[in-house]
């Protein structure tokens, strides 16, 4: 493996392969307990999420090597969407000792790196995972088709699915929500080369951003999608509630609702408790400095 060879020229490297959900977290926790300097995660955003969870709160640093279909977090950092181009940046950063602490989101005890989607967004991810074999090769078209089919067949667009309580300096309750995105970074995702900007001010040094849709009207949703794709983010209005730099969020309902974290569908729950955790992970600064 070329990536392994390049890293091994400068560092002692142990390669560990995962084969099921949860493996990466256990391997990363073991690395942190052994006091290793860094864990380089090579895979998609779901694998990155597990590794970040495993090293969070330890002195073991996290390095991000894109190897998935979208690689939202790596691209958000400004890294090239290519493992071979990115590995040299990691080597240079490790050589400089360029490592800084970043904040992460946390929900029901588990960390997330860029976002957690609740409601419709999660139902789309669930449908995509039912075609997991196609995800790597038909990623973005597959998501578009899944979004349309979920809209038409899978998701109740008449009855609200949960309420959202946004905490921080002031507390606000948003009743009757259909889907919510809680973000630790911006953009929310990418459609091909184009970023899907929801709250551009969101970054790793601030609190969470919360975007909540209280309507499933197609015209309104498409208007917000168009605004996000043009850049500049979305603003609060009669069907959309936007908050930034939030420290706590609670999403709840008597009826269970779906959620996904960093692109992995995690099932249905009746309550999600979010918090922002400053300095959660030591990140190798393997990307162009601003």
Tell me about this structure:
It is a single chain. This protein is α+β, with helices and mostly antiparallel strands and 290 residues long. It folds into two domains: 2-104, Rossmann fold; 111-276, Tumour Suppressor Smad4 (Sandwich). The chain has nine helices and 14 strands. Strands 3, 4, 5, 6, 7, 8, 11, 12, 13 and 14 form a ten-stranded antiparallel β-sheet that branches. A two-stranded parallel sheet has the order 1-2. It has a two-stranded antiparallel sheet with strand order 9-10. α6 packs across α8 (139-154). The two termini are 31 Å apart. The mean pLDDT is 89.
Short description:
This protein is α+β, with helices and mostly antiparallel strands and 290 residues long.
Q: Tell me, what's the shape? A: globular
How many angstroms does the end-to-end distance come to? 31 Å
Reported for the largest beta sheet, the result is: 10 strands, antiparallel
Low-confidence stretches: none
Topology at a glance:
Layout: H1 2-8, H2 23-33, E1 38-43, H3 45-55, E2 61-66, H4 72-77, H5 83-96, E3 99-107, E4 110-112, E5 115-119, H6 120-129, H7 132-135, H8 139-154, E6 162-167, E7 172-177, E8 179-183, E9 189-191, E10 194-196, E11 208-213, H9 218-230, E12 240-246, E13 248-261, E14 264-284
Parallel strand pairs: 1-2
Antiparallel strand pairs: 3-4, 3-14, 5-8, 5-13, 6-7, 6-13, 8-11, 9-10, 11-12, 13-14
Helix pairs in contact: 1-5, 2-3, 6-8
Overview features:
single chain, alpha+beta, Tumour Suppressor Smad4, ten-stranded antiparallel β-sheet, two-stranded parallel sheet, 14 strands
